Amino acid sequence: MKPAVKKVHSTYRISLAPYSVWSLLFVIVPLIFIAYYAFTDNNFNFTTEHITRFFTATSNLVKDDGSTQEVRTYLLIFFRSMKLAVISTAVCLLMGYPIAYIMARAKEKTQKTMVTLIMIPMWMNFLIRTYAWMTILQDTGIFNGLISAIGLGPVRIIGTEAAVIIGMVYDYFPYMVLPIYSILAKLDTRLLEAARDLGCNSISVLRRVIFPLSLPGVISGITMVLIPSVSTFYISQKLGNGKFFLIGDAIEGQYVANNLHFAAAIAFILMVILLALMAIVKYVTSKYVYGGD
Amino acid sequence: MKLSSKIYSAVIFGFLFAPIAVLLVFSFNEAKSLSVFSGFSLKWYDELIHDSNTLEALSNTLILAASATAISTIMGTFAAVGINKLRTKWYRSVMNTVTDIPMTNPDIITGISLMLMFVFVGRLFGASSSLNFGTMLIAHVTFCTPYVILQVLPKLQQMDSSLPEAAMDLGCTPMGAFLKVELPEILPGIITGAIMAFTLSLDDFVISYFTAGTGFETLPIRIYSMTKKTVSPKMYALATIIFFVTLSLLLISNVVDNKDSRKLRELQKSQKQ
């Protein structure tokens, strides 16, 4: 390499240096700190008690009929988080795919307007969005007012799992629609014509051509909704009346109570599980979407 | 568009905008009720502009967002230039992975991890409280920079790489070639990145919540503590103002964008002729 070229390359190295150091100090090292806190006690001696506590701690769950049942506290919270997140993600996909498809098929000008309309709620803080639903779904709220007026209500929604799911779906809906839309909008329409020429009806074009081609968008939509819904706090506090503690609420609760080591342990377990989930998604994608057939 | 498509779109957008409409309407309600509209009044807005805590939180948020945007835009742009030129394969993939981490990790993990480190380091130096404006700024720069890189990198990849080389052949220093040739080419990416960084910083609650000191309250943290206690339509007034400010920002950036693409189309037309 000529000296001049070498000099140019070292200049580029230098321009990357601040970010490299920053990422090491404030991205990599903090993640190591989660593991460090998770496996140490208050005096920073090694212990697995926090991890064990996550799997073994028990408490008494009061059921609706007043009876109590002993449950594994944090395992229950964890599976509840997974369940609500998976349901919310599925609802987002079922509601979002059709609208993404309609958007991709609309005129260019309409497409732009619709994208902006989908994005506008994202510009409101999620605390405010969640709070708005709280006032709508309250026992004396607008929703109950409306359905009472047509003689159906009132129904108790706030404080149920349904309310938490509505909140999650509303907060993360755009993250599902936008990636799917961006793939569908770029889809080569000649492929659809070809499929039709070869004898596909509309449903089989959708099932055998459009949907498989849009899978990368579907998968990034699923991850972009699943990850924040699994780890959210606040939504369940506001819409679930604090009855449906989620894993994010558990971390926040331990942080507020200044149990930093246990908070770190829960965060560590959440991180490991999410990494495993992502690896599965990646494996399935590479095999199913890019691997052929 | 078919009728069924129109109906479905109306239902979806109704779902998306119903809560916002509720906020808007009830921010003008005379009574404190959040279900019965009893008359038009501006009293919640009046209360809001006399609420010194909220105003201070607003100015804190703007100061933090502006500082975080400045640092992350400069650092992110230089980083993108560096990553674009990396020839070492493993270094490049390490940088890509590291850039992905703050974007894919849940906010709560990012927040907790930074908080634990700040508390640990603070304890080492014997500080009584280790969280302050500085720690929040570090946290915001950390989650904003990847978005700047993500906006700038494609512009660099689209650019003809022989341009800066030609500039250097003609006697420019590498820095001169960067400032005079590369920078104007990638400027749109830098601006979009900066806007993204600014809005992400403004909007962030979770990471701020874990890294904020007691003395420094941003608007989302203020909203959080306001909604913990009893409900006040003052919140709605605040939300309405935020909504119209962001809406006008969005419209302005759309108009600028449209002008840009119109110019581009005219340019392409004239090139064809």
Strand ordering within the main sheet of chain A: 1-2
Q: How confident is the prediction overall: mean pLDDT of chain A?
A: 86
| Count of distinct strands of chain A | 2
Count of helical regions of chain A:
12
Percentage of β-strand residues of chain A: under 5%
Q: Using the CA coordinates, give the radius of gyration of chain A.
A: 24 Å
- Specify the structural class of chain A: mainly alpha
* Terminal residue distance of chain A: 46 Å
User: What structural class do helix, strand and pairing data of chain B support?
Assistant: mainly alpha
Give, in order, the helices and strands of chain A. HHEEHHHHHHHHHH
Roughly how many Å is the radius of gyration of chain B?
23 Å
The average pLDDT value of chain B, as a whole number, equals: 86
List the uncertain runs of chain B. Answer: none
The residue fraction in helices of chain B comes out at over 70%
CATH architecture of the domain at 55-221 in chain B: Orthogonal Bundle
- Major sheet of chain B: none
Terminal-residue CA separation of chain B: 35 Å
